[in-house]
Design a protein that fits this description.
- The complex is a heterodimer of chains A (about 110) and B (about 110).
- Chain A has strands at about 5, 10-15, 20-25, 30-35, 45-50, 55, 65-70, 75-80, 90-95, 105, 110.
- Chain A has about 110 residues and is an all-beta fold.
- Chain A is built from no helices and eleven strands.
- In chain B, the strands form three sheets. In chain B, strands 2, 5, 6, 10, 11 and 12 form a six-stranded mixed β-sheet that branches. A four-stranded antiparallel β-sheet of chain B has the order 3-9-8-7, with no helix packed on it. A two-stranded antiparallel ribbon of chain B has the order 1-4.
- Chain B is built from no helices and twelve strands.
- Classes of the chains: A mainly beta (about 110), B mainly beta (about 110).
């Protein structure tokens, strides 16, 4: 069964450093998403990406965040200057269409120290 | 703004017993509704979804859910739980089609007693 692959599975970074989280969505999917889950809290939507541009973003997705699809397979989330409160599990998801389910990756656990 | 409420933070059931996990949503039109399961250290696995049509939907692992518009609910059920069903269950809603993100509930942690 096709999977969404996220790397790395764990990342520890110092406050103020830039991090890039990587995702390989399912190959024929068209919609791409990032979500985050702070420990003990609910999953929160960050951003959706379609046709090489951001479709929707939440209040969380401020100027510190950016997304990119640098080639035909990868989808990345960049945090420019990490803060302690950015520590969370970050999930990538993809979908083949608006009326279909979303396939999530296993997540990247980001710890900012 | 749409919201999802899962009123039960934890639920404990005995193995072999039936299960119902509650989910209520706040949204004007007919939303797209989802149930996901999350095991420790794992991603979110789709159990089932409702977009339109028959209000009783069947999912994987023997789960089903019923959409009740009058109650704004989408409760998840299973007639007989197995120890392997212990996990976090998350209800989510989406505003129709398009590239909108999902709004999740806080999740219900299911504990299975032997």
């Amino acid at each position: 069964e096709p999977e969404v692959t996220q790397t790395p599975s764990h990342q520890v970074t110092q406050m103020g450093q830039e991090v890039i989280l990587r995702c390989v969505p399912i190959s024929n999917h068209l919609y791409f998403y990032w979500y985050r889950q702070i420990l003990g809290q609910k999953v929160e939507f960050l951003v959706s990406f379609y046709n090489n541009e951001i479709s929707e973003k939440s209040e969380i997705f401020d100027d510190q965040f950016s997304v990119e699809r640098p080639d035909g397979s990868n989808f990345t989330l960049k945090i420019r200057s990490t803060k302690l409160e950015d520590s969370a599990m970050y999930f990538c998801a993809s979908s083949s269409g608006a009326s279909y389910g979303y396939t999530f990756g296993s997540g990247t656990r980001l710890t900012v120290v | 703004a749409q919201s999802v409420t899962q009123p039960d933070i934890h639920i404990t059931v005995s193995e072999g017993a039936s299960l119902e996990l509650r989910c209520n949503y706040s949204y004007g039109a007919t939303p797209y509704l989802f149930w996901y399961v999350q095991s420790p250290g794992q991603g979110l696995q789709l159990l089932l979804k409702y977009f339109s049509g028959d209000t009783l939907v069947q999912g994987i692992k023997g789960f089903e859910a019923e959409f009740k518009r009058s109650q704004s609910s989408f409760n998840l059920r299973k007639p007989s739980v197995h120890w392997s069903d212990a996990a976090e269950y998350c209800c989510a809603v989406k505003e129709g089609g398009g590239a909108d993100g999902l709004t999740f509930g806080k999740g219900t942690h299911l504990i299975i007693q032997p």
